[in-house]
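# nightly structure sweep
# worker-07 picked up a monomer target from the shared queue
# config: single-sequence mode, recycle default, output format = structure tokens
# input follows
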Amino acid sequence: MIVQDNGPVHTSHAAQAKWQNWQQQGLFLFMLPKYCSEMNDIETEWHQLKTHEIAGQMFDNEYDLAMAVIDGMTARSQKNGYTLERFKFNSA
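# output follows
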């Protein structure tokens, strides 16, 4: 079973065309309600990050925003005593 939100990539026509085949192979999709932050732990982290670490800042480009998010998440992990691991998806 795979749990997904209702993001466009998860509900696209291309994805929908595969749902029946996936179910026949024993793979079932569970779609979260349209907006269900209480079932998505990352929403709490994003809220805290936006409220505390990057609140009130303006960014000239995506790189500056990305670096602020990385720095903010690093600060949150150190403050709250949890391990933070960065990884990059292979986009090729």
